[in-house]
Amino acid sequence: HISVQAGGASAVSTDPGGRFYLGRVRGQLTEVAVDLGTLPEGYVATAPARRENSLARPPALPLLFGFVAQSELRVRVFVDVQGNGKYDATDVPLDRVHITLGDGTVRLTDRSGWVFFRGIKPGPYRVTLRVNDLASGYVPITDATRAVDLIEGKAAFVDFPILAEHSIGGQVFVDRNHNAHYDEEPAVKGIP
Q1: How far apart are the C-alpha atoms of 16 and 1, rounded to whole Å?
Q2: Low-confidence ranges of the chain (pLDDT < 50)
Q3: Residues facing 173 on adjacent strands
Q4: How far apart are the C-alpha atoms of 110 and 174, rounded to whole Å?
Q5: How far apart are CA 92 and CA 138, in angstroms?
Q6: Residue 192: half-sphere exposure toward Cβ, Cα within 13 Å
Q7: Is residue 40 classed exposed, middle or buried when 0-12, 13-18 and 19+ CB atoms within 10 A define those classes?
Q8: Which DSSP symbol is given to 2?
Q9: Which of 8, 9, 94, 95 is deepest in the core (most CB within 10 A)?
Q10: For residues 63 and 51, is the Cβ–Cβ distance under 8 A?
């Protein structure tokens, strides 16, 4: 059901085998084009989707228009409040975390904790979370590098659940210069 048109003639739809027949075409020069809006989502052309043809020297038949399904990788980084390794309504997305593919492509997570790698070729990928981007006390529950196999035309998902250590620490010291900052001043021991 992909729409194909020649010149100003009415468009025809491809049959289940992807074939189309435009019938008689008038004029010396005619453009044959595939309507890209009728393609399934995620498909891109492997060659031009428009061809200009001279009817004085007709093209070899059949005219071929190739398309390929592109894959997508969706990665999510979040603080796993429940500690169950999966995203729940109470979990907190983390933004501005670098995610790197094995080919060197780097993207930052958005405010909802997502990063998308669209239009990539199917096959095996390594996805790495940059641990240094996490705040102090945040650690990944899973390995920071994960393997994923992308299937043509499909989306794959990788979650990086992050555990927040629930602890508070600090230092008690004599603030001799009264600036409310620790400037190598003496520590106070034994304070509960």
Answers
A1: 7
A2: none
A3: 187
A4: 43
A5: 12
A6: 0
A7: exposed
A8: -
A9: 94
A10: yes
Q: Quote the pTM value.
A: 0.57
List Cβ neighbours of 60 (8 Å cut-off, separation of 6 or more). Answer: none
Question: Can you read off the two tokens belonging to residue 126?
Answer: 């390594």
Question: 55, 30 in Cβ contact below 8 A?
Answer: yes
Tokens in use for 140?
A: 């990944």
Between CA 119 and CA 96 the distance in angstroms is 22
Separation of alpha carbons 74 and 123, rounded Å = 15
pLDDT at 167: 64
Q: Which residue is associated with the tokens 């499909």?
A: 154
User: pLDDT tens, 113-167?
Assistant: 999 998 788 889 999 999 999 988 899 999 999 999 988 878 899 999 999 876 6
| Spatial separation of the C-alpha atoms in residues 159 and 152, rounded to whole Å | 20
Residue 51 tokens, joined: 């061809």
3-state SS, 79-147, equals ECCCCCCCCCCCCEECCCCEEEECCCCEEECCCCCEEEEEEECCEEEEEEECHHHCCCCEEECCCCEEE
Residue bearing tokens 């650690």: 139
Give pairs for 104-109: CB < 8 Å, separation 24+.
Answer: 109/75, 109/76, 109/77
What is the C-alpha separation between 26 and 32, in angstroms, rounded?
Answer: 12
- Number of alpha carbons in the 13 Å side-chain half-sphere of residue 87: 14
C-beta of residue 120 within 8 angstroms of C-beta of residue 70: yes
pLDDT at res. 116? 93
